[in-house]
Fold this protein.
Amino acid sequence: MTDRPRFEMPDTTAQEVRTAQLESLRETLARVYRQVPHYRRAFDDAGLVPDDLRTLEDLARFPFTTKDDLRAGYPFGMFAVPREKVSRIHASSGTTGRPTVVGYTHDDLETWAELMARSIYAAGGRPGDLVHVAYGYGLFTGGLGAHYGAERLGCTVIPVSGGMTPRQVQLILDFEPRVIMVTPSYFLAILDELETQGVDPRSTSLRIGIFGAEPWTEEMRREVERRSGIDAVDIYGLSEVMGPGISQEAAATKDGLHIWEDHFLPEVVDPVTLEVLPDGEEGELVLTTLTRRAMPVVRYRTRDLTRLLPGTAYPGFRRMQRVTGRTDDMMIVRGVNIFPSQVEELLLTVEGLTPHYLCVLTRPGNLDELTVRVEAHGSVRESDRPDLGARLEGLVKDHVGVTVSVEVVPPHALERSLGKAKRISDQR
């Protein structure tokens, strides 16, 4: 036995992980085939039975699971255990249709807490830290996932949830937390409020920010760290697979998020052909749960774009590159594909512009047009805003190959997000 701290990962090799994955995957496929009617039908339609999986590569023969499948099973049709064995239910907001409902057994909640504790530890959190949780609570998985993980690690949790930004700032100043868990866009609103109150964000007690629930860029990380003095690291998750804590970026390396492959099996597929891509190539992330009891999912299409890379801080687990966008967030403007993250990356290179922006899609005639509304920094004179807009228009044209209009607006002109940022307004 070693004196390795409880939540520091063991020295597991990639081959040991793969061997364990195969055993867990076989059990998962057999269980969903027996207990979830959707998977029995899907496997039968594909002419497959669980015993057809002999290697991890055989998983590519099995059908995908999509959000539409989860909605079709609303509310409890995807559960692999009787409803009375389910200890908790979470659900999506349902803004684009029926909500997707997910369930957890007691053991699932224990696993989730352990993985969140592992993630916070990887980010630099330690037992005894004060952790300010500004993710939303309720049916959204972010707040409660962060809450129970921080408690499992032995931290003191401040369960603030989202909103009431002046109160967030007051509690940060009074309670002096070391760690904040929040969406990156809402953390920007907190920084704005600190500065409005005359407080230098770099003077607060915060040292670590664990940011998730929305795509963000390396340029955003530099901007946040410059303004706040914290280490900003990424966490990834989605409720359909578990919630936050599927993968985590290590503060020691800040080079992508290690996927906890003892619980999740990742693939990356071409979003068009759906063929599995080799590690290193960008495509859509697909996840299969290996230990989830109440609601296992097989080959769930996340719609998130990333690539798989070798492990670094935790060599036994592969990393995923920070999510660069979602296949359903892609804007096609006059035949050119463009993501909000590309706009964000470029606008943060223009001194005088802030990371508060909105991409507005319109169709005044027969062609789509994109207008980027972006806030100027408070120090920028109104007469200088058109020049900043012209600079960003040129950068987008040169780097993305599409003509856009840029409207530089005054500080605080755009609505602030209390959770996930809204980056696209489709007015077509």
